What we know:
Two copies of one chain form a homodimer. By secondary structure, the first copy, chain A, is mainly α. Chain A contains 14 helices and two strands. In chain A, a hairpin with a 2-residue loop joins strand 1 and strand 2 (104-105).
Amino acid sequence: MDKKEFEALLDKKVSEVEDILNRHLPEPKGLQKTVLESMEYSCLAGGKRLRPIILTESYKLFSGSDELPYEVESFAAAIEFIHSYSLVHDDLPAMDNDEFRRGRLTTWKVYGDGMGVLAGDALLNYAFETAFGAAAGIDDALTLSRIVKAGAMLSEKSGSYGMIGGQCADLEAEGRGSDVTIGDLLFIHEHKTACLIEAALMVGGILGGADEKEIEILKKIGSNVGIAFQIRDDILDVIGNTEELGKKTGSDAQNDKVTYVTLKGIEESEAEAESLSKEAEELLKSLPGDKDFLSMLIDSLIGRMR
Amino acid sequence: MDKKEFEALLDKKVSEVEDILNRHLPEPKGLQKTVLESMEYSCLAGGKRLRPIILTESYKLFSGSDELPYEVESFAAAIEFIHSYSLVHDDLPAMDNDEFRRGRLTTWKVYGDGMGVLAGDALLNYAFETAFGAAAGIDDALTLSRIVKAGAMLSEKSGSYGMIGGQCADLEAEGRGSDVTIGDLLFIHEHKTACLIEAALMVGGILGGADEKEIEILKKIGSNVGIAFQIRDDILDVIGNTEELGKKTGSDAQNDKVTYVTLKGIEESEAEAESLSKEAEELLKSLPGDKDFLSMLIDSLIGRMR
C-alpha cells in the first residue's frame, strides 16, 4: 500500500466511523432536545476518528474478518463519545476556556456553559449506555464476558486511573511552572493521551478474542504510540509550520508551558519519539492478521514530519 | 415495626451503605491524588443514601436473602456515585453556583471549578467502572446477563433520556418563567428526580431475578415516589419550617420559580402527592418478600409533613 492508497483507505474508514456515530447518536427531540443537539454538535464536528478506527482495526487482526458485529461498532462509537466529551469539558471556561475548535465555536460557546457541562456529562454517560447496549439480545456467555471485559477496560482507561487522572495532573502542572519534571510530563502524556489509544487497541483485541499476552502487547503499542504522538506534538509546536499543521505553533512557549522539548531539547525528544515508534512497530509485527493499514496509521501519526 | 425501630434500622442501613462506598472508592494517591480526594470529599459528605438503600432493599425482595453479593454492593455504590456527581456538577458556577451543600463547602469551592468539573466526570466514570467491575470473575451466563441488563438500565436512567434529560429541561425552564406548563414540570420531576429512584428499584429487581412484569411495577413505584417526593418538596418550600427541614424555605418564590404549587395550588398538590403515594403503596403490596422497611421508607420520604 502506498501513501495515496493509504490516505484513500483512511478517508473511507473515517466515513464508516461517522456512519456508525450517526446511527448510534440519539435523535434530538423531546424536552431534552437541546442536550441531544449539543451531543450531536460536539461529536459531528469532524476530527480524525483515530480511536474508533484503531479499535476496529485491532478487532480485525484477531477476528480474521472485515465484518464488524454490532458490539464492535458500539464500542467504536463509545470510545469516540468519550473522546468528544473530554474535549467538550476541556474547552469549558472552568478549564481551558477555548472558544474555537476545528474552526467552529466550541460546544459551550454555542449552547452556554451550563449546557456545555451537561453535553459532556451526556456524552460520557451515553458512551456507557452504548457499551452496555452492545450486549442487548446476546446470550452466549463468551461474547457477554468479552463485552463486560471490554467495558471494564474502557471505563478504567477513561477514568481517574486513566484519562481523567492525566487531566488532573495536567491541570495541577499548569500552576507549577518549571517545577514540572520529566516524570510528571510522562505521567500526563501517558494518562491524558495514551490511555485512550491503549483502550482502543485493547478493547478491539478483547472483542476479537486476543489472549492475555496479546492484550499486553496491544497495551504497550498504545502506550508508545500515545506518548510518541505527544512528544511529536511538543516538537512540532517549536519547529512546525502553522499552515501544514492547521494550528498555531509556538503556543507552548508563549504560555511558558513545560514540554518534553523544554526539558530534553529537540534532538533528544526526536530520538525518544523515534525509539518509541520503532518499538511499537516491532511489537505490532508479532501480532496476527493483516497489519499493513494499522502500521501505516501509526506511522502517519507519529512520523508527521517525515 | 414502629417509627423508632424504623429509624434505628434506617441508621444501620445508612452505615452499611457508607461502608460499601468506602470500600469501593479509590484510595487518593499518585499524581491524580487531587481528583481522587475530591471524589471522596463529594461522596462522603453525608446524605440520606436513599438510592443505594432502595436498590439493596429491592434486591432482597426477590433474592429472598439478606446477603448482598458483590455485584449488588457494586451497583449500590455505582448509583450513589451517579447521584453524587450530579450534585457536584449542579453546584458548579456554570450551573447553580452553590457554595454550600449540607453545611459544607461544595466540591468546586474547595478544589476550584476546573477540578469540580473533573471530580464530577471522575465520579460518573467511576460509577460505570464499578458497574462493569461487578462482573469481574463471574462466568455464569445468568449472572452476567443480569449485570449487563442492570448496567444498561442504570446508564439509561442516568442519561439524556433520564436524569440528564431532566436537568436539560430544568435549565431551560429557568429562563422561561411563567411559560412553564404542568407538563414541563412533570417531565422535569420525572426525569431529574424519579429516574434514579426508578433505576434503584429496577436494578435491585433485575439483580435479584425479578421478572419483566415485576420490573414494570418497580418502575411505576419509583416514578410515583420520585414525583410525589418533588411535589412535597415544592409544598414544603411554601409552608415548611426551616428548622425542621434543615434548609431555607420560600426560596422558590424568591427565585420566581414555577413549581407544582404555583401552578396547582397547595390543596391540589397535596392531593396529587397523596394519590401517587397511595398507588405506590398498593403496587408495592403486589410484590414478593418482606416489604415492611421499604414501605416505611417510602412513607417517610413523601409523608414528611405527617
